[in-house]
Amino acid sequence: MNYLTHYVQAKQTALFIKTRAFFAFSNEQLHAREEEGVEYVSMGAGMVCPKSNAKELYEGLKLITVEGIKEDIAENGIDAIIERELSNHEAYYVGNIEDTVEALEDYGVTPEQVLSVYNGTRDNHE
Predict the structure, then answer these.
(1) Positions of E strands within the chain
(2) SS3 (DSSP) at 100
(3) Residue 79 in contact with residue 110, Cβ under 8 Å?
């Protein structure tokens, strides 16, 4: 089963190229990539973008995520996604669904849905 990254990664990369966004985790990395005369802004998590392209990047990333979630749900079904994320966040091992609930917020999944899938599948994961 694919993860959300499968559905969004290529589109995000294309958007980064189009908006000239890049990742820099030190001043050295920033100075190696920045262009003279261009004002940059931090987009968080080390991502840097020319200020003139920041809105396009932000809006594009939001749209790509929404579309990726729709593709993920269409291909895998919400219950399978919940089970995938329960495993990914080790909920079966630790006996706690909170990280999974948080991870699936953008999917519109409720804590009750996660708990229902957890209770229905935990015997398969022991």
Answers:
(1) 22-23, 40-44, 47-50
(2) helix
(3) no
d(CA 61, CA 18): 12
Amino acid (one-letter) located at 16: F
Query: What size, in residues, is the chain?
Result: 126
Cβ pair 125, 87 in contact under 8 A? yes
The upper half-sphere exposure of residue 121, i.e. CA atoms within 13 Å in the direction of its Cβ, equals 20
What angle (nearest 5°) sits at the alpha carbon of residue 60, between those of residues 21 and 73? 125
CA nearest 16: which of 67, 50, 66, 65?
50
Cβ-based neighbours of 79, under 8 Å, separated by 6 or more: 117
Q: Which residue type sits at 27?
A: N
pLDDT by residue (tens digit) across 29-85? 999 999 999 999 999 999 999 999 999 999 999 999 999 999 999 999 999 999 999
Give the global pTM: 0.88
